[in-house]
Amino acid sequence: MRGRWSLGILLLLPGLTAVAGAQSSSSFMPLDSGFGPLHTASPSQPVPLLIEEFAARESQFEHALENYTYQRTVKVETLNSDGKPDGEYYEVDSIGIDSHGRHYETVLHAPPSTLTRVSMSESDFSDIEHRLPFVLTTQALPRYDVSYVGRQRVDQVQTYVFEVKPKKIEKHQRYFQGRIWVDAKDHQIVVVDGKSVPDDLRRGHQDLSLPYITFRQQVDGQYWFPVWTHGAGTLHFSAGDGYLAQSVPMAETVTYSDYKRFGSSVKLLFHGQQLPNTGQPPKPANPPPSPQPRP
């Protein structure tokens, strides 16, 4: 996100001039009661082998996703002092597949943005497409340090927890930094919690991002697809060159729904239980054994 506030005057510019030191308020989203105690004992299986196996499964998932169409809804809000929205970016896109087998986007609904204190940057749109639904494949693995944290129950799913951070930050590249929860049975990522890095703090290019958490669900009982991402926090923009400092509370929600294998329809499942393809399943009286999106 880029700030847009200068000496009390709204600037309709893509960015602002600011000094280094701007930042978001946190690098993680808080975990709720669906996450059980963290057990840090070493796993029975060697950690390098676990990492190799889940990265291979992530590669399979990434390839499978190329054959699915779906709908993506993005809502980004700035919040006032009462925590109520005072500006919104909203867009609904259909993700289709062309005759060459490549994904393309069709905008279904995009009312004019009412954001005034920040503006969406190219990094924001790139993060929405590539990093919020984070995938750690065998090909991407050499770019990251991955360390074992422990085992933790997420709803009714037993998971391995790993810390993930880039080995080095290369120019013009974006990365994920945070934690991932990997299903201990399927060896696929089911929850991601962290943020996209690095924040751009250069004078005249200040661009900050929110921490976020992404939940996945099973599609056709096989692969875990992202269905819900939520980010929240306060972005702190520094003052400089005549610009006032400002802190902007924000919330961001992305839902992924209506997954269909190209040329067919699919069922969205929680370990065999069919659910409405809405991106956020209702919470039943007896929760199915799968991590669930948090409102």
From TrEMBL:
* Comp. bias intervals (Pro residues): 279-295
Which Gene3D superfamilies is this protein grouped with?
Lipoprotein localisation LolA/LolB/LppX
**Region of interest (Disordered), residue spans:** 273-295
Show which residues constitute the signal peptide: 1-20
The question of whether Signal is a record keyword is answered with: yes
Keywords assigned by UniProt? Signal
Signal as a keyword?
yes
What is the official name of this protein in its record? Uncharacterized protein
Q: Which organism is it from?
A: Acidobacterium capsulatum (strain ATCC 51196 / DSM 11244 / BCRC 80197 / JCM 7670 / NBRC 15755 / NCIMB 13165 / 161)
Taxonomy of origin reads:
Bacteria, Pseudomonadati, Acidobacteriota, Terriglobia, Terriglobales
